[in-house]
Amino acid sequence: MGPPGRAQPLSLVFLLGMGMASERIGCPGGCRCQYLEVNCTGQQLLEFPTAIPLDTRQLILMANNISYLPAVELSILADLVYLDCRKNLLGDDLDFTFIGVAKLVYLDLSFNNLTQVTFSTFSHLLSLVVLKISDNPNLVAIEKDAFANNTWLRHLDVSRTALTFLDTSTVRDLPNLRFLGLSGNLWHCNCSFLDFITWMTETNVHFPDADNITCYTPAGRHALKVHALEAQLHISCLTQLYKQDYVFLCLVGFCIFFAGTMVAWLAGICAVIYEVHISKGEEEEEED
To answer: Tens digits of per-residue pLDDT, 31-56?
Structure first.
């Protein structure tokens, strides 16, 4: 029997070798795998990788050419908490894609081709804390209740997209929101956007790069900073409202006047007919 001192290094080497072998088992080709993490950055992947270890907690697919995330393959990774899909070709419909990864806390879909966000897109991500969907130049719409189920959402970035409007309740009703990226969008600063601008000035949410949150349309407000526009827009919209009120009152007054005139005219006709009828009756009595 050898000296006990040599058994310890041999056991360490054995354990280290087993650890390295376990890292290689089930690792997608071209990716780097370590304990609970799979990193496939920049591997020119065209599809979602296969043979991902089932206990993966962190999956990085950054800088590839993936255009589709299969819901079934994702759902197998039930313990996934971190998913980075930056700089891919994801677009079109992502509804129900994340139905099986309810533990997801971090999701980065920036620099893709997303076109819209609906209630069904992220509604199953009940634990989501960080969501980045910035730099999607074709993203034109986020539904009013798109984040209704994401009550833990703390960091939301929708910067540099094609958004022109965002309903106030979409972000106002997120109780844990602390960081909201809005810069570089095509905001249409009309009276419908006034409520959102007012919320921005009153909320405790932090807006990074606030000076780049500017209006794109209408032409008279192009490049104006949104946070400094509230007073001007408030006065303009109230004046417009007053004008509408005046028009409405004038129409109501005209309708009342016209109705009164018609009633008086009909009453006059009825009175004349009545008088003629009475006169004829008296004449007939006199003749008899």
So the answer is: 999 999 999 999 999 999 999 999 99
Query: What is the bridge-based pairing of β-strands 37-39 and 32-34?
Result: antiparallel
Cβ atoms 119, 145 nearer than 8 A? yes
Q: How many CA atoms lie within 13 A of 220 on its CB side?
A: 5
Q: How far apart are CA 225 and CA 90, in angstroms?
A: 31
- Whether the Cβ atoms of residue 40 and residue 63 lie closer than 8 Å to each other: no
pLDDT in tens, 104-120: 999 999 999 999 999 99
Q: How many whole angstroms separate alpha carbon 69 and alpha carbon 94?
A: 8
CA distance 205 to 201: 9
Give the burial string for 127-148 (b: 16+ CB within 10 Å, else e).
ebbbbbbbbbeebeebeeebbe
Which residues contact residue 145 at a Cβ distance below 8 angstroms, ignoring those fewer than 6 apart? 119, 169, 170
Q: Rounded to the nearest 5 degrees, what angle is found at the Cα of 146, between the Cα atoms of 157 and 117? A: 70
Residue 274: per-residue pLDDT: 72
Q: What 8-state DSSP symbol labels residue 155?
A: E
CA distance 227 to 4: 73
The architecture CATH gives domain 32-186: Alpha-Beta Horseshoe (3.80)
Q: Is the dihedral of CA 35, 36, 42, 46 positive or negative?
A: positive
Residue 44 · residue 66 · CB < 8 Å: no
Half-sphere exposure of 182 (CA within 13 A, CB side): 26
User: How many CB atoms lie under 10 A from the CB of residue 224?
Assistant: 16
What is the total residue count of the chain? 288
Helix locations, 27-113, DSSP H: 71-76
pTM: 0.76
Q: What angle do CA 88, 89, 93 make, to 5 degrees?
A: 125
